[in-house]
Amino acid sequence: MNTLVYLIPIALFLGGLGLAAFLWALKSGQYEDLDGASWRVLDDGDGRPEKG
Amino acid sequence: MSCCAPGVETAVEPEGGLGLPASEELWLASQCLGGGSRQTELSVPGVHCGACITTIEGALRRRPEVERVRVNLSSRRVSIVWKEEVAGKRTDPREFARVIRDRGYEAHLFAAGEEEEDAVLKQLIRAVAVAGFAATNIMLLSVSVWSGADAATRDLFHWISALIAAPALVYAGRFFYQSAWNALRYGRTNMDVPIALAVTLSYGMSLHETIGHGEHAWFDASVTLLFFLLIGRTLDHMMRGRARSAISGLARLSPRGATVVDADGSREYRPVEEIRPGERLMIAAGERIPVDGRVLAGASDLDRSVVNGESAPVPVGVGELIQAGTLNLTGPLTLEATAAARDSFLAEIMGLMEAAEGGRARYRRIADRAARYYSPAVHLLAFLTFIGWMFVEGDVRHAMLVSVAVLIITCPCALGLAVPVVQVVAAGRLFQGGVMVKDGSAMERLAEIDTVLFDKTGTLTIGEPRLVNADEIAPAAMAIAAALAAHSRHPIARALHDAAGAAAPLAGEIREIAGAGIEANTKEGVYRFGSRAFACAGAGEASRQSEAVLSLDGGELASFRFEDRLRAGAGESVAELHRLGLETGILSGDREPVVAESGRKLGIRRWIAELSPRGKVEACASAVEGGHRVLMVGDGINDAPALRAAHVSMAPATAADVGRQAADFVFMHQTLTAVPFAIETSRQAGRLIRQNFALAICYNVIAVPIAILGYATPLVAAIAMSTSSVIVVANALRLRGGGITEPQRQAPMHAALLPAGDAR
């Protein structure tokens, strides 16, 4: 029973962390273009620095 | 390196950039970000892979005025942030469109103003996240309870579950509560009423049980239920929102504005709504006519195919009346506006469209129809269970528990989840194949059709002429004609140029005479290319719609004959439609012999020619009265009312703005195989939806008796509900297993090989 006092808050905290991370990702527009993102992973670029 | 558009880079671009949005229009539509920078959204339907992204972003980034550029592959959009001025020079936003076009992609202006839709979607996704978080955590605690936690531990876990569930239900459940409340307030009932009731009652009962140190609590059930239903709701919303915004944001045919010449001679680019009758407008070659007007000065050819379906350009001169929406091809015109935008031909079409909408509005979505029977049945069942247990045991608490269990277990997961999942998967498959769907009900309607009616110009045919007697013409004459044709953007000149390939430029003074042809003063003499009347100085009949003559000093050198060509895949598509057991027909505004010829080529036996927009609507309506369900495929402004009047409708992406707005489906690539492809996918989706309903009924047949008999413990309810949801989703995903079909493979190829219809 005593371990639960630690474990449950830890579980909830970690879950909450996941939720917060998801909401942050959503807010910063990371879900706007899922198709594009999967292609961008493969893009090595041409070695030149990006402008702006 | 681009896989997508081989060879397009070499295509000769008419110097005016026909089909590119005008600079002023782009400037007007761009969003001011402050600090001297602006943002423009362009719709580029051709992007479909990583190479496209790199090509477009790379090309735009190289321009000095571009600050940021990002291609969105999901919505096929490019957003560009650019500086208003670079080194003291005003930026021309049209350059962006040109850069994209030079890489072989079509670029259209994207209409902003979909932010509101997005906000709801974001809220829904957030609600899904919160419900998911709550569901997983409560489930974790519930598993402990089910596996034997008892006494104080069980109470503690129930209390924690209650604490997690309460805010989650309020936050994530508000969509259902609001909708249910709205329905109840007007004395109706909908799907959300049983959902809201089940969630609230189960929470209330569970709390009551927890306070009384009871054994069972349904917190997990109510939150999981909400989670699943919210997923369905979110998918449904995406289905309705995303594709629609992409469609409305494509090319705009009705221009946003025009250059107005004031009494003192000053020029100003004004939005089309602010143009008053009597004002003078300058229309450059390549621009669309914004409002109805009378020609004051200039001569030109007009492409009226979008307005009346006639494929041949019509010459116009001073004093003639022209309609809004037509495309000015060859010469600049000065117009006097005769009607404001809201009284124009376009507005008249809008009126017809509204009148034709009736049939569409009466259609009820499958889920709505099912919900009408479902929710009263469920409520009655739960109520009868309560009465029954009261009668048997007389224990209010237990009777209440059992009837809540019935409500939970019968909650319409299949209705809430099955239909949207199938539709989203189907829409995704259609999108891959180049067909965009406006909303789920369009697919439901498409699955029901038995007749397909086509418009001719721009739908069955490309609406561009093609040279048919190329082998009869001497190569020398062909080369000269092609060199002349390179200086015009008249459709016939472009067709000749396409047929001849690259031509050596002609030395000498070359000019285009609007409404007639092209003339060149060279050492050999005066070459003329155009109508017979023009080229041979009045000799012979002037059948200019299908013929062009090359002459040297008035003597005929060669005569070129042209024909409108069929859209890629038209023949196969019609055959495929017949194989699917559908009737076909043509409704066209074009002249009878032309329509008859197309019908003969394609094997379509029934056709009506020379129809007005009203005539098309009436033809559709009479088919509906004959008990048919009609799919109308059309592109022009004159088709728009018929597109609305038909049971369901489809338009190519090259269609007029109004046509695209009116259509339920828009196909992005040139080939017409999109039509049978969409029909087949919709039918498959319909089958899967029916299967899912059958699965849901089976599930209820098994689960409801268990619940009524009082054996539905929270564990049983959780397993039953989750299993049914997972099965329904898995069934929907089978649609994806159909593999890559022909249209999907072919579509991008066709789009690249044909000069994508940029004018319409």
UniProtKB/TrEMBL annotation, chain A:
What Pfam families does this protein's entry cite? FixS
Q: Tell me yes or no: is Transcription among this UniProt entry's keywords.
A: no
Keywords for this entry?
A: Membrane, Transmembrane, Transmembrane helix
Membrane-spanning ranges: 6-26
Q: Which NCBIfam families match?
A: ccoS
Q: What is this protein called?
A: Type cbb3 cytochrome oxidase biogenesis protein CcoS, involved in heme b insertion
Species annotation: Sinorhizobium sojae CCBAU 05684
